[in-house]
Design brief:
Blueprint: H1 3-16, H2 21-24, E1 28-31, E2 41-42, E3 47-50, H3 54-57, H4 60-75, H5 78-84, H6 92-107, H7 131-140, H8 154-157, H9 177-198, H10 205-213, H11 219-235, E4 239-241, E5 259-261, E6 267-272, H12 279-296, E7 300-305, E8 309-315, H13 331-339, E9 345-350, E10 366-371, E11 385-388
Helix pairs in contact: 1-4, 4-6, 6-7, 9-10, 9-12, 11-12
């Protein structure tokens, strides 16, 4: 297959679905004769595989539709959902069909898809259901799926497949789990922005985007209370500024009155980058960091470290964050480093496999600990507010 054809399909997809552009430009397109000639497939490292003779079986519109279909597997995290319900070698084919049914149900009205694909009406199933619903129905009678051609790959079922490049391959680019989460969040933001302008969205994308962008931890409630408390305790309720004239100015033009404002507290946020923090933990850490940034609408100082701080950054976006570490764990040391800057609020995001100081480090007022794992929650000191992402 001419490489220009598959790249043209990507361009056509970007033009038709601008809210998918972050995902479409993040994938690696790989031609492989190890892959089935009837379909495309994605791996969980955001690489999309296609057979050299794909253009002999399908026209350009169908190839574009197939590419958009694979992108939906990646942004909807079909692989993660498969792992969550325990998909294995015995059930992955049924899951592949179920996920294709869910995606094609909403997508078939937006793009041209091959007729031999998986569609709910072919199996006498209703449209508009989610992956897990179709899977439960198909598990009742696996025979329903045998006559249909549906794609696959670790990007769908989370399992290893012979045709796929190694996850750490240097020859082909790959997207890590934490990077994939950032791409999904950007796509979700673009989906909601597009929905405001266009008013419609295929399938369940708008609902997915709303769910994804609501942080797993209710940061708006938790941080709001912590911010108000720290301002009251440390800085007072208000301060004065001459940047915005007071309303009294209209009645006295000779005297310039300052207006009152609530000062924004300084926040120090420590991210555990020790060896025990896996890709899931780091993805959660970045997701919740974005929740903090979205809430405070101000720059936050990030302290990335394990037994010491390896990187200190003042950031306004998670894309600016550079995580360094990989050794042992001592979030107490990170807290002491944060305390040297005396922020009004200190936040630590960790898997909680760490020792803690017996007393709150001097220089800290409010301390919030966000746990990505629940097993060690009893070890968190009482002087810190504990929030569990898994709750």
């Amino acid at each position: 297959m001419d490489e220009l054809l598959i790249r043209a399909a990507r361009l056509r997809a970007v033009a038709k679905f601008p809210y998918l552009r972050s995902a479409l430009w993040s994938i690696e397109l790989i031609e492989s004769d190890k892959f089935g000639a009837d379909t495309m497939g994605a791996d969980k490292w955001w690489r999309v595989y296609y057979h050299p003779t794909l253009d002999e079986r399908y026209n350009q519109d169908e190839i574009t539709g197939m590419l958009v279909h694979e992108i939906h597997h990646l942004i909807l995290d079909t692989a993660g959902r498969a792992e969550a319900i325990g998909i294995n070698q015995e059930t992955f084919q049924i899951w592949n069909v179920a996920s294709d049914l869910a995606i094609n149900s909403g997508l078939q009205k937006e793009v041209t898809l091959p007729e031999n694909g998986c569609f709910p009406e072919k199996m006498n199933l209703p449209e508009g259901e989610i992956h897990e619903w179709y899977y439960a129905e198909l598990m009742k009678t696996a025979k329903r799926m045998k006559q249909h051609t549906c794609g696959g790959g670790s990007g769908v079922d989370g399992l290893e497949h012979e045709h796929e490049e190694p996850g750490d391959s240097k020859a082909k680019s790959s997207v890590s789990k934490s990077e994939g989460e950032l791409i999904r969040r950007q796509v979700a933001k673009d989906v909601l922005d597009h929905a405001k302008k266009a008013g419609t969205m295929p399938g369940e994308l708008e609902r997915w985007a709303n769910n994804l962008l609501n942080p797993k931890v209710d940061w708006r409630t938790e941080l709001s209370g912590a911010i108000k408390g720290s301002i009251a305790d440390v800085m007072g309720q208000v301060d004065y500024t001459y940047r915005k004239p007071s309303r009294r100015q209209a009645f006295n033009r000779r005297v310039i009155f300052p207006t009152m404002r609530g000062p924004k507290p300084r926040i120090g946020l420590g991210i555990d980058t020790s060896g025990s923090m896996n890709e899931d933990d780091l993805a959660k850490a970045l997701a919740e960091t974005k929740g903090v940034l979205d809430t405070v609408q101000a720059a936050v100082t990030i302290y990335a470290g394990d037994t010491e701080v390896h990187n200190k950054q003042l950031v306004r976006s998670v894309r600016e964050i550079k995580l360094r570490g990989g050794g042992g764990t001592d979030m107490g040391a990170v807290l002491h480093a944060i305390a040297e800057d005396k922020p009004e609020i200190a936040i630590i995001i960790s898997d909680l496999y760490t020792p803690w100081p017996a007393e709150k480090p001097r220089g800290l007022t409010k301390v919030i600990v966000v746990g990505t794992q629940a097993e060690s929650k009893a070890e968190v000191p009482k002087w810190a507010k504990l929030i569990l992402v898994n709750d």
